[in-house]
Fold this sequence. Notes:
- It is an enzyme of class 3 (hydrolase).
- The protein is an alpha+beta fold.
- The protein has five domains: 4-179, Rossmann fold, CATH 3.40.50.300; 192-276, Elongation Factor Tu (Ef-tu), domain 3, CATH 2.40.30.10; 295-367, Alpha-Beta Plaits (2-Layer Sandwich), CATH 3.30.70; 395-476, Alpha-Beta Plaits; 480-591, Alpha-Beta Plaits (2-Layer Sandwich), CATH 3.30.70.2570.
- A hairpin with a 5-residue loop joins β4 (58-64) and β5 (70-76).
- The longest helix is centred in the C-terminal third of the chain and has 16 residues, at 556-571.
- Bound molecules: guanosine-5'-diphosphate (GDP) and magnesium ion.
Amino acid sequence: MKRIRNFSIIAHIDHGKSTLADRLLEFTGAVNLGGKMGQILDSMDLEKERGITIKAHAVRLKYKAEDGNEYILNLIDTPGHVDFSYEVSRSLACCEGSLLVVDATQGVEAQTVANAYLAIDHNHEIIPVINKIDLPQADPERVKKQIEDILGIDSSEAILASAKEGIGTKEILEAVVKKIPPPKGDPQAPLRAMIFDSWFDNYLGVIILVRVFDGIIKPGMKIRLMATQKEYEVQRLGILTPFPKDIEQLSAGEVGFIIAGIKNISDTKIGDTVTAVESPAQQPLPGFREVKPMVFCGLYPVETNQYEELKSSLEKLRLNDSSFFFEPETSAALGFGFRCGFLGLLHMEIIKERLEREFNLSLISTAPTVRYKIVDKKGEYLIDNPSKIPKIYERIEEPFMKVSIIVPEEFVGEILKLCQERRGIQKEFSFISKDRILLVYEMPLNEILWDFYDKLKSLSKGYASMDYEFIGYRASDLVKLDILINGEQVDALSVIVHKDKAYYKARAIVQKLRTVIPRQLFEVVIQAAIGSKIIARESIAPLKKNVLAKCYGGDVTRKKKLLEKQKEGKKRMKQIGRVEIPQEAFLSVLKIE
Ligand code: GDP
Ligand code: MG
């Protein structure tokens, strides 16, 4: 055990985590990249080797250090987005230290702070690495000072590196060996191994990645997953180099994969503890939590006959992602579809994109919403669809987040205004360097879904960075805003808004809908209502002529083109009553000025 080091790389996006990981793999001879950086840890299905789908989220490297000894270095990858912060925390829990990569031209950003705090929470030995020193704008001294001032991490021995040019690679590996402590643990104690990743392989079933804390695991052993109480027999054990290699045992302190004939990925929860059926551990490892979706939307096929296809595609995606949720839902406006739940906005985008790209589905999605807590006569319960809010209730509570923003001073005025508009409660305002400010707000998640990130980026010319975490439910003065089209309420367009903003939002939504709904052969009236009270109204004048009338019948290609264009446009239209409504309309409620 004293020659093992378990570590991860943490960074703000684009600061060079993947490039550095590739460098470390190359330097230690794990792979030959032939000069081109392949982003090995990022590829989902790296390739098929000996029939195993590889997800290189933990790589075992061999490194011969300057002290003459050979060390085993386990590099555990962490997901790079705030939506997956629980997964990040589990990966960090499996390591004793981390490399904190900071871009020498950008300095400390919001995710640098969030990730560094997570690593500090896990008592990590943190090695600062200042990357991209090859760039002319690099200012390592300034970045060192930021690391000390903002994070309170000693940066006097920060390593200056260029992952691109391979500068500092050896120094980084030496620091990993010298500074990060070896794992502790008792190989004689009952087995306790933490699951930090899992995926589904068509031939082998679920493959889980674990860090063994106590005990030894061997093929043939009966294991129990403590959170789900499911039992399996270990068929194969191995390590990723990054290519899979079978081994005879994994002992306390080690990292590797287990194949145990597991069929269902939802049995293998991230953060759960694997123990032995014979002489099981008394207590699971700390920190396990059931992950819950935070953001919901309805997904409907444009063509009703694609419903079954959508269902089977969702099932296939779920095989590999147990953090995403779906159940059948019917909408009066959109027909049969699914209510889907995601960890966050990015997670939602990823799933939607995969459904469209990989499964070739054409979908209508409703505006994302959070899960509200309703308190009424029936008690307390959560709803994930605005159309399900009861008429009478005692109060509504909504999820609140702690939002941390780092912004250059010149843009701070605009950002403060934005946060205030979004019902943010300021908790901190501090200079982290001469010209950059850290803002901390408590803000409803609902307000973040409404275009917050895009606004933050555009108001700061791209310079602001942000991170957020869930802090709890709080009561708010919320109302349901319904949209009626030619007198018919469209359930899929209902949104929940704060009472103070209801009039303004109602007006903005109907105006926006007026621009995205194409003219029809009759007048279209768009109204917004709270309960039975109409608070905004717009109308779309009827079309005067048939579009084809313009083509005189002479120009056949032009006519064809027009018809095709119409068909294209129809692809994402839904017929509601007599009115055709494009996909854009369902999301337009989010994108209002
Ligand atoms: P990640 O998001 O942290 O994984 O960042 P990547 O490793 O994907 O790097 C982001 C971008 O920065 C890519 O275009 C890299 O080629 C580039 N990059 C990474 N390291 C360096 C470096 O040391 N110097 C320079 N000039 N560019 C780098
Ligand atoms: Mg990356």
